[in-house]
Design goal:
The protein is of the alpha+beta class. The protein has 4 helices and 11 strands. The strands form 2 sheets. Strands 1, 2, 3, 4, 5, 6, 7, 8 and 9 form a 9-stranded mixed β-sheet that branches. Strands 10-11 form a two-stranded parallel ribbon. Strand 6 and strand 7 form a beta hairpin.
């Protein structure tokens, strides 16, 4: 399914919401990822039609077939980056966003998803951030979290490349990642599970890398730790 070509930010279609969500209070205590903004970015691809025009529209749900291959084979990838408020609270800054776009392109390749131009995706996301700039918590150590995601829209139980793909991006105003707030993070060097392995998928941000980490993370959380320092398998040799 991997193909050349890309959507273009110059073709971006924008539909602004007529029913904006209620903004959080100025002293709101943010829980990471709990709130989403008014708009989202979507770009659809099909094997027969290629990339369609990128669209920014009001935040909405997807209708997904129960046979969708994302649900069965984890044909999904994502990125996570942030827009930070400037010291004068007038501008927003993204830290090296092109590197996230390039890594997402690498994840697309690993899933046999279609190719795209990372710079065009960055431009589309920058426009989305600007449209929802009023959702930025203009407070110290707060930010607007940016979550670009790619999923399969192939509705089949067969293990095969997706003939339809959706790339989308949503935003979330955030404060501290951990419930204990802005404090030093306690880390456990967990040796009971290997997350990355030689020639595996640990260098891509695909959903299959994250689901199996929930149980180990829950284990160390019960012991009072915030995060796991994962063991990397050094014992797998090339065959």
């Amino acid at each position: 399914a991997f193909s050349t070509g890309s959507f273009r930010a110059d073709d971006l279609v924008i539909e602004k919401t007529k029913n904006p969500k209620k903004r959080p209070a100025e002293d709101h205590q943010y829980v990471f990822g709990q709130l989403t903004t008014d708009h989202m970015l979507e770009v659809d691809w099909s094997e027969s039609g290629g990339w369609q025009k990128p669209i920014i529209s009001p935040y909405h749900c997807f209708q997904m077939d129960p046979a969708n291959s994302t649900l069965h084979y984890a044909l999904e990838c994502f990125e996570g980056l942030k827009a930070y408020p400037s010291h004068d609270k007038k501008k927003m800054h993204l830290f090296r966003p092109i590197e996230n776009m390039k890594r997402m392109q690498t994840s697309f390749k690993a899933l046999a998803f279609p190719d795209f131009d990372p710079e065009e995706l960055q431009k589309c996301i920058a426009k989305l951030v600007d449209i929802d700039r009023d959702w930025m918590p203009w407070r110290e150590k707060h930010s607007l979290y940016i979550r670009p995601t790619g999923i399969s829209f192939e509705n089949t139980l067969g293990v095969r490349p997706a003939t339809k793909v959706k790339l989308f991006c949503i935003l979330s105003p955030v404060g501290p990642y951990y419930p204990r707030g802005f404090q030093p993070v306690s880390v456990d060097c967990y040796t009971g599970y290997v997350r990355a392995w030689y020639k595996g998928s640990g260098d891509k941000k695909i959903g299959a890398n994250y689901g199996p980490t929930i149980k180990p993370a829950k284990t160390v959380a019960a012991q009072g730790y915030d995060q796991i320092l994962w063991l990397v398998d050094d014992y797998v040799s090339e065959v």
